Amino acid sequence: MDVKQAVNMAKKELYLFENPTLEAEWLVALSLGKKRAEVHGDYELTKGEERMLIKNIKKRAEGCPLEYVVGTANFYGYELKVNKNVLIPRPETEQLAEEVISEAKVAHKILDIGTGSGAIAIAVKKQTNAEVVAVDVSGKALRVAKHNAKLHNADIKFIKSNLFSKLAGQQFDIIVSNPPYVTNAEYAHLDRTVKDYEPKLALYGGGDGLDFYRKIILDAPKHLKNGGKIFFEIGYSQASEVKKLLKNHFKDIVIKKDLEGQDRMVIAAKGD
């Protein structure tokens, strides 16, 4: 079959998805080892390319996220490697990165907790050239993050650390985190395209989804310089609870909404 026939075949198999044409073009491009924009012309697929295409269509039809099938995701204009060891970066998290970028100065030292694919750390580093340190408890996630940083020539210090455990004595101007915040009840009802494929370690935040906020907020003050700020992504219903947790140690607490109008970010300054 030629490229056009391959795209049409993939579209028919993926008709239940929101944008089957887009999905089909991505999968044909993957099978050809090309970029999506290069999927055109009268090129005839080899038998090996056809087999790869059919295999990937099947994987996607079974529910595997497109980003995992293709192996990349776009974040803040940067193409990042992603696999089952890291969460697929979401558009809402781009807004969190934007808030940090707006605050950061070149001389600032910034800590990204739970870096995953390195998405936030890379965007902040590339846009501000501040000093960026990124930690994650998962060595497999850090391998992905390091690959992405190298890909984009982003000089980031990566440390395998359970939150602040390997950061004794270090202080930062900004701490940013998109921690796991899915509750017990939410995890039980997650869409299978998320629950069956994305790492639970990056999703599940304990019974009420607030376990990591409690831990980070408890230790963050001693790792923030005077006047330092903390930036969190939160679940849509968690703003008031996270604000309560911050009140004992932080001031000037601001809740910001995402583009859908949902509470999505909390920003606070280190208290006196």
Would you kindly provide a written description of the structure presented here, covering whatever features stand out?
There is one protein chain. The chain has 272 residues and is α/β, with parallel strands linked by helices. 39% of the residues lie in helices and 20% in strands. The chain is built from eleven helices and nine strands. The protein has helices at residues 3-13, 20-32, 47-61, 66-70, 91-103, 119-128, 139-151, 184-188, 192-195, 211-219, 239-247; strands at residues 72-75, 78-81, 109-113, 131-136, 157-160, 172-177, 224-233, 250-257, 263-270. The strands form two sheets. It has a seven-stranded mixed β-sheet with strand order 5-4-3-6-7-9-8, with helices on both faces. Strands 1-2 form a two-stranded antiparallel ribbon. Helix 1 packs across helix 2, helix 2 packs antiparallel against helix 3 (47-61) and helix 5 runs parallel beside helix 6. It is elongated and about 70 Å long. 40% of the residues are buried. The mean pLDDT is 95.
